[in-house]
Design a protein that fits this description.
The protein has 217 residues and is an alpha/beta fold. The chain has 8 helices and 6 strands; from the N terminus they run ααβαβαββαβαβαα.
Amino acid sequence: MLSARRRPELDALARELVGSRVVTADLSQRGEAERLAGEAGPVDILIANAGVSASGPLVDFDVAGLDQALDVNLRAPIVLSRLLLPGMLRRRAGHVVLMASMAGMIPGPRSSVYSATKFALRGFGHSLRGELRGTGVGVSVISPSYVREVGVFAAAGGSAPGLTVSPDQVAEACLRAIRHDRAEVTVAPFYARLGGSVGLAAPALATRVRSRLTDAQ
């Protein structure tokens, strides 16, 4: 089951993945996550990968922009998990993969909205994993650094800043998380992973460092 907003890209992927079924859905619209779950039928593995960048100073957002970020980055994966989990639990098998970000580890300037959604998604994933322990259903959080070649930067004709990873590395992390039932896989170069550890242990320090790096750019 392949789902995204744009049908042509989905159809092209479905031609590569023979036997796939395509359902378009815009998860920024209320009711779309529910419709998608209903049309999907029984699901063994949910990979909740939809997201919007939601970067910039908080005062530059209108309320509609805040709602879009919350709906796509946080509400949609929670709703899809809620609606698809009962079937997994009945079968005592399944896996939920949540695409978070290192922005959910390292707070920084001009990313308060995006970081809020990713911090929340990580918290949801780890809490849900504990809730489902012993049921046969796993939950994994994937936290990449900036991803090159695809995504918001590529769509805008630019390149991802800083320490990047490839789409293949993120895909491999998803496979590793499912196969080995990993709680979280951080997909990033060594120095970025080290920064993530600092961000989790000392968020005030990480914020100061990121602010200085941002001001220097």
